Amino acid sequence: MNRGDISGVDLNLLTIFEALFEEGGASRAAIRLDMTQSAVSAALGRLRTLYADRLFVPTGRGLSPTARARELKPVISEALDRCRQSLAMASPDTAAFHGRAVSIGLSDDFELALGRPIMERVAREAPGLRVIFRQTHSQIVSEALARQDMDLAIAAGGFGARGLGREVLGQGGYACLLDGDAVPDVGLALTLDQYVSLGHLLISSGGVVGIVDEALGARFHHAFRGAAVVAQRLARRRDDSRARRRRDRARDGPAAPRVPREPAGLSRRTGLAQQRAARRRSGEGEGRDRGVFRGVLHGERASVMRQ
User: Fold this and answer.
1) How far is residue 239's CA from residue 259's CA, in Å, rounded to a whole number?
2) pTM for the full model?
3) Which of 5-14, 70-79, 187-196, 276-285 has the lowest mean pLDDT?
4) pLDDT value at 121 more than 80
5) What are the strands, taking DSSP E only, across 129-261?
6) CA–CA gap between residue 19 and residue 28 (Å, rounded)
7) Burial class (CB in 10 A: 0-12, 13-18, 19+), 268
8) In whole angstroms, what is the distance from residue 282 CA to residue 274 CA?
9) How many angstroms separate the CA atoms of 195 and 192, rounded?
10) Of the candidates 157, 122, 115, 163, the residue with the CA atom closest to the CA atom of residue 138
11) For residues 22 and 100, is the Cβ–Cβ distance under 8 A?
12) To the nearest whole number, what is the mean pLDDT of the chain?
């Protein structure tokens, strides 16, 4: 087949490809497209033949896209979006949103604050449009948008990549949640010294340093720098000491092998045995060795058993 000729291609396969990619499974894609699962599976077989690739491989949680499928996703989605846009221009009725989906990237806090208002407005102005919330944050949002893992995102920064449009929606601040029983003397006015003296709980998917730590680091730069200098000096002193010990060992030659010391109890028992052997050789204590009594050693103590 001529790859440039699409007259013999069923373009409905592209919508099935998009649904499989976004839903991650044939059963969920079938529900979204109002089709049977067997029909979706058959369409996947035709897609594999068309693109000469498996496209989606089974996993424990459904279907996972291959590298070729990830390359195709932005191209196919863009083509379908252009088709949808043309239909919306011809028929601006809200029913045109039925069966369509939009994915929005949100962090946890923005999802709690904006998730419900977004759903309510979509239900009023675009009924039938499916909204998918995806987890993101400022450190990964640009890459996710570039891969078209989501259509748009709301985050506290991270939109500096070339080609991304952005709009400021508002500004937010921080509030401190305190355990009144643990810190009863703080009151409503919390000073910076009190804040940094208390234990903190950080919930983060991006490491152990949060945005508050970065702000405090900039404010107390000189203090942190002084601590870093002290740490560097200690590390340098430790390295110098190790180097000096290595030079001393190299100058003095290899050290004599260490002879392992015997435990105290073992040395004592060995000495008693040597004394008895000497007495037997000299004839001393012959009656004892013949069984008048024998010494029984328990650990480091000796007790006498009469016969």
Assistant:
1) 30
2) 0.45
3) 276-285
4) yes
5) 130-135, 152-154
6) 8
7) middle
8) 13
9) 5
10) 157
11) no
12) 75
